């Protein structure tokens, strides 16, 4: 007899754990190279803000390994920043997204407009 009571299949063919939105398991295997894209107003402080947030959440040995690419919009009003880094855990990713999100509000003058 199979002892996998917690993995009972549901009608959509997923296990109970896969259906649980509060589950803490991640589909990612850590550590892994992970990209984050931030789009915001083309202001000098945007790139500094983003880098400071990443450096706050990464060990100092990893600061120099950040892969940063920037791209200006056609009319130079917006800047996209893609950062690839070695993510150590889901908790670390969540912390980075939470800190970035603090600067991404519905206010017109919010410096970050989107985080992917």
Q: Count the E strands.
A: 4
Number of helices: 3
- What percentage of amino acids are in beta strands? 25-35%
**What Rg, in angstroms, do the CA atoms define?**
18 Å
Sheet/helix structural class: alpha+beta
Order of helices and strands: HEHEEHE
The biggest beta sheet reads: 4 strands, antiparallel
Average the pLDDT over all residues and give the rounded result.
86
Quaternary state, please?
A: single chain
Which residues sit in consecutive blocks of at least 5 with pLDDT less than 50?
none
Shape: globular
Order of neighbouring strands in the sheet with most strands: 2-3-1-4
Short description:
The protein has three helices and four strands, in the order αβαββαβ. With 116 residues, the chain is α+β, with helices and mostly antiparallel strands. It has a domain at 41-116.
Can you characterise this structure?
- The protein is α+β, with helices and mostly antiparallel strands and 116 residues long.
- It has a four-stranded antiparallel β-sheet, with helices on one face.
- The chain has a domain of 76 residues.
- Helix 2 packs antiparallel against helix 3.
- The chain contains three helices and four strands; from the N terminus they run αβαββαβ.
- A hairpin with a 5-residue loop joins strand 2 and strand 3.
- It is 26% helix and 26% strand.
- The longest helix is centred in the middle third of the chain and has 14 residues.
